[in-house]
């Protein structure tokens, strides 16, 4: 059975092409994503506001356990793509010159199959795994209790001895890299086409392997802009989260040639 599933996934991904792109193409995705947000701002801003409120609630509940917050907020980057599914649908509707409303975004949360739900659960497991790993590493090896950002800066980032911060960053990167490679175009592909989860993941890996430089730039932009958006009390997420979501749809459309794959919706 696993062999048949793998063979079917390979057949699915082979029906999809990977388009060539210039190294600076991620900057164009940002420009197109901003254009989509300005054309249909309400669903995106609501999405960003809900994310900011969720982050604020987490911050209040765990404000004295910064060792947990560090993992939770960085783990957010792993699950953010699935939370943006409704905004991919908005960008698709705008592209097709169809009505793009809040209902368009909400409709994606009532799928006629479970592929997006399953993929979301897998991302949630990855995010939870990083939260547990991060918390265990910091509480187990930090020379003092980490209760607030000042403690984290003093005892982890600027520690005079040991390599705790370097190990924390390295472990995060080791987990984030395969998750990024597996999901960067997989979720919009699952929304747009009738393809299995494994086939979508393999296509996402093909994209990353075919374009390592622009995809590394895209990953850097996603992380940097998201972290910057978190600095002003998470308020930047109201705009940055939907902006990056719309841009991610255009990344998928530029990178994947869907010829031969059955359209969904």
From TrEMBL:
Record's keyword annotation contains Transmembrane: yes
Superkingdom of origin: Bacteria
Keyword entries, A-Z: Membrane, Transmembrane, Transmembrane helix
InterPro entries with a match to the protein in the record: DUF2189 (IPR018692)
Transmembrane segments: 42-61, 67-90, 116-142, 162-191, 212-245
Pfam families in the record: DUF2189
Protein name stated in the entry: DUF2189 domain-containing protein
